[in-house]
Amino acid sequence: MIAVIDYKAGNLTSVMKALQYLHADAVVTADPATVFSADKVVLPGVGHFRATQRLASSGLTEAVRASIAKGAWFLGICVGLQWLFEGSTEAPEAPGLGAFPGMCERFPAGIKSPHVGWNSLESLRTDSKLMRDIATGGFVYYTHSWRAPIIAGTAAETIYSSPFTAVIERDNVMGVQFHPEKSSTVGITVLKNFVEL
Amino acid sequence: MLTKRIIACLDVRDGRVVKGVQFVDIIDAGDPAELAHRHAAAGADEIVLLDITATHEGRGTLLDTVHRTAHELFIPFTVGGGIRTADDAAAVFDAGADKVSINSAAIARPELIDEIGQSFGAQAVIVAIDARRATRGNEPIANAEVYVSGGRKPTGRKVIDWAREAEQRGAGEILLTSMDTDGTRNGFDCELTAMVSDAVQIPVIASGGAGNAEHFTDVLNGGRADAALAASIFHFGVTDSRALKTALRDAGIPVRLPC
Description:
A: Rossmann fold, three-stranded mixed sheet, globular, B: TIM Barrel
């Protein structure tokens, strides 16, 4: 079962529609026990990083931490990827999970922000489970103003002014900055890869 | 590399796609869900559905149309028309929209931009501006005016000022329609688009006047638009996104070509 975490950040409709299209056994939940018992967890997220504070206050952060520790697959989408880092300058008072080192920062002044539209995936790590069957140069849909740094766990990059982490992956912990549920066939392949893990 | 977006727009009335020239002479152009999926398959980067009736009585029909259109549509989907409150926006998001486009209601009460942005994120709010060049004075573009009510009612506000306010209030994108060029198929208003695009740091979608691929090239280059929207050019087989994007690629514009 896939637990799709509802923490009142944006809407989950699109993510659920895509998972249902793939015939995944997915449920929307805000219950820490349900999250902990799932063998896969998806943390969607659009909007402000501040919203992730609700994860901490509702016990979901600890449920996710325990879930990852016992080996469940985790996929963070958009702000859900950023949350895997130490935090974001968008809401410095809200710590991230800290599964990966570094802070998310805003795109520099002088380029249009949010970064909206279809941009290409570059520097794909060949050992990535999430990026299986995805070709370098494949286009995915982004809409965000903050981005995660390139680190050892980066499994794909995208360039907007400078490179940022498009995909992060280390063992069972994964995240995508783009919206796979809105990225046509490339995005559906990414979600399929996750569903089939 | 970030590509320029081609957005297919469906004007919907009573659950059917319609097209008129400068908002009159309306004719039937098909089923919204069917057309949206056809556009997506042909490589459109996004779908915008505008409810041009936008009456209170028609909300149920609209939500049903949104729900049907969003089904298995895996590209961004924007809905506009008749969204006056954050609750209206929430209903549209629940039905499957990814973004909302607000126009007259934002002019009437600009705080609506902040409210929807705070609840659903700036990326979910497109402020649509219907603009006309000023007919008096020496600077028709700098003094271009915002119109509402389907382009019928002048507001007395300058387009550039309203675009900047929308950005400050947290809009994620501007959808700029030139009422002068809309429906003419003679090309976008590139100068107006360039002025707005330079005045804000958020993406600008150009709309109104698409007739051929060169018009798109002009507005995405000289007009400095981040995306361009077209409706009637697609509906009647003039061209589709695949043909259009191939032409744009050949003209040196970065686009996402469908597989």
